[in-house]
Amino acid sequence: MSRLATGGLIDRSRPLAFTFDGRRYTGFAGDTLASALLANDVKLVGRSFKYHRPRGIVSAGPEEPNALVELRSGARREPNSRATVTELYEGLEATSQNRWPSLDLDILSVNRLVAPFLGAGFYYKTFMWPSSFWEKLYEPFIRRAAGLGRAAEGDDPDHYEKANAFCDVLVIGAGPAGLMAAKTAALAGARVILADEDALPGGRLNAETHEIDGAPGHAFAAATIAELGALPNVRIMTRTSVFGVYDGGTYGALERVSDHLREPLPFQPRQRLWRIVARRAVLAAGAIERPIVFGGNDRPGVMAAGAVETYANRYGVAAAKRLAVFANNDGAWRSAFAARAAGIEVAAIADVRPTIAPALLERAKALGIRVIAGGVVAGTAGKTLARIDIASGSRTDRIAVDGLAVSGGWSPNVHLTCHHGGRPVWREDIAAFVPGALPPGLSVAGAAGGTFSLAGAFREGFEAGAAAARDTGFAAPALDAPRAEDESVALAAFWHVAGSRGPAFVDPQNDVTAKDVAIAHKEGFRSVELLKRYTTLGMATDQGKTSNVTGLAIMAELTGAGIEATGTTIFRPPFTPVAIGALAGHHRGTEFRPVRLTPTHGWADEQGAVFIETGAWLRAQYFPRAGESDWLESVNREVKAVRSGVGMIDVSTFGKIDLQGPDAGVFLDRVYINTFSTLAISKARYGVMLREDGMVMDDGTTARLGEQHYVMTTTTANAAKVFQHLEFCLQVLWPELDVQLASISEQWAQIAIAGPRAREVLVGVVDPGTDVSDSALPFMGVAEARVLGGVKARIFRVSFSGELGYEIAVPARRGEDLARALMAAGAPFDITPYGVEALGVMRIEKGHVSGNELSGQTTAGDLGLGRMASTKKDYVGRIMAARPGLTDPERPSLAGFRPVNPAERLRAGAHFVPVGGPADAAHDQGYMTSVAYSPNLGHWIGLGLIRRGQERIGEKVRAHDPVRGGDVEVEICAPCFLDPKGERLRG
Amino acid sequence: MRIPCPYCGPRDSSEFSYLGDAAPTRPDPAAPGAEDAFFDYVYLRDNPAGPLEELWFHASGCRQWLKVLRDTRTHLISGAVFARPKAEVAR
Predict the structure, then answer these.
(1) From which domain of life does this come (chain B) (predicted)?
(2) Which of A713, A733, A840, A848 is most deeply buried (CB count within 10 A of its CB)?
(3) For a pLDDT cut of 90, what percent of chain A falls above it?
(4) Does any CB of chain B come closer than 8 Å to the CB of residue A487?
């Protein structure tokens, strides 16, 4: 066991059992999986991506490139989980990745022998040819060899939420700078959200051993959080990663609500995706310690210096029994002293700098730590680290250690500052990229901006919090920063131990070595963007948090251009991985989008209707009866019932728009191709409207209820589009017209009854004394009446089916009552409910156009509606519809089609080609838009668009369907197959 | 993106639908050369890098068409007014 006897912010009274690769271990509440594994002396935690090299934990934070595990099992299994940020819980199951047959003995580690073929650009070189090898050899090999864990195969049993939050000041990160910024803004009175990805806010205060106002750093953090938590204008969001900066002060954040539990509590989501809108934000995200690249630097036991300190102070774990430190800066010395204070033997500190500050040397001497100034690590040995060689000058020291703490300096977490295209700026004095141009409203404080000392973090946090408060209208208090050390962070830039022994990894997660960078340089891929793509540097799940700067620094050394001129790749959201499930939230499966139900849905469900999605609506498709073998049989019955008796269907889904005002008639004249200002009151008219480019946009009937009052219907699919178009015409094109619009689609239920007996059914539902005779309510007549004993109704004598028909509209909440009343009134006539399939059959029999014909590529002329267009007025689309291309007589136009052999089935989408001619694009004359089986005619019928269609009645062509197969000879006919004179609907 | 709707206040852009450049105006259909003028009106658009006045419809809000000033390079929105002229808004 490497658990220290005392110390750490863990709860030793709450032991937690967990398994790793099936073996049982115990940790404590407050541990991460990584700290618990280290406490149990588990140093080998995974195998690398390409070469299957043994790998161990290198960090204590979100930047971890190596310690990725599969977490949980079954449908909850989640690959590439970072052990360093996985909170330990009772019963946690974790499995190592990329090993076969076991972590300890990995056969594919022989990949190391073929390493020369897997170097930089291997995708482009090794697997170039022959291309037939790809599918059988290369791809399976790469997939087996280079994996990053296995995704769960079952559906995710957990659910995810989305939420919105609003604040004056968002503070990102609850380290010293963030705490100070949040406190300052909060005390000024601003609404503050303080978000931190950790479960325990405090950042470095929990990891280091600073004294603040005489108290330990972690106690100061806890007290500040308690103080903030008591303020009503502060919301503290722990386990919440702010991962992206979007436009207008919008921030994306992921709250891991239940990831620290074995399973979410009942009714709790697993994660919650936040959209936080903040007037100002302070980025206090800290910095990430960089490694130094040397041969054998990936051996388990080699770790970031700050991580060793964190494991000792926060988790009470000795990451090594005997430690060496390799660094280029003063900060790492403090990590060494902290490790020593925690009881870890520190064998040596090797610092690349020949001259060290006297204070550090004195302290090391007092603690009995050997110092090798100007020393570098020249090689390592052991399956897990057992020995290092330190070269200084001409001598080499061989030191037996099981841990090596490395520090190459710190990289500020500038990621979020890049999300609006800001480019980080190189600062030579700290050898780091700091934020460049910032997203509007965002400021940076503390280590995220390159200010690494604790006192500096407090000062900048205060300043940023005060400025954010002022910017949002609050008076900031005077500076009251806690007393803390302004410790030295001096460093000498140093990236790579040239000539060290063994492969030197720059990006351990993607197995990119210093040699790969050199190959990219040699082969000309020198820009940072090319370096990244050619070597895959920084392209793994960690997005190069520990490797990008080192990689480009090595390239800069090779080119001699310097880091500033070399530049850096920029970062895009998300900062850390976000599960697709969280982005989807509740929108999955049948909840993918909201479903709209018709007012009679419940009644139709009782009738055993089969439903179909039409746009956002769920509509009755057909109503099967016992003994019917398939949908066609049901639909045939429904069609025959309507044509011989009476049927009913809910048509509430049509868009309904109320238009009122003195200019309503003029307005309609301008949006429809035909005239409505002359329409008599209590009459309806079919109308066609165009887009301004001359194509048909929509059709429907519009009724006039009064001198200044019209009601328009639109197709179901275009309801929202037409409404938006009408508002555009009114507000933007002709604001001088006095017309008011209201969408009333939701307010009215509308049911159509159709068939020779329709009037008799209608008589049964209208209130006594209502005259619905042919003379009182003729074809295209409209009546405002009462039904069902006093219920307000509008009755439109219109027909889509070609039969005598009425559409009855009642307030939506009475729609179901109306359906039941119609069924009762229609019982003597055997009234038959029908669905959208039968409706479709009947409209094709009548040659009425619908969505398939209103494709946005057809003109009124194409659809045989050209004669409706008024020549006495202007309307939207008139000018452009007159263009030669849109009036070309060669254009495909609407016609009907019937199979020459009545037994043959037609298919929508089939293309028309000449009989006996080739079936190719050059001979394509148009295509079939809609087909149906007509039970009245006893064969299939179709509508389609064919060149000069209206002039070719009686001609035969082939309907060729290369997709589904089939080549049917069809005869062109008039698009109306039944009752062409319309006698039935006037009956 | 957030749009400061003059009626509803600042709202998320997902409540709006976008049309495009607010500059083109519908030509006089009776004027000579109307066909060419309409062709320009329907199809020809500049694609400026910088501030652009655009038409947005507050579909999930007040149903007003707005003229929104947006910088196409940065998505910075510096204002929004009703597309309908002031006199008609007041009516």
Answers:
(1) Bacteria
(2) A713
(3) 86
(4) no
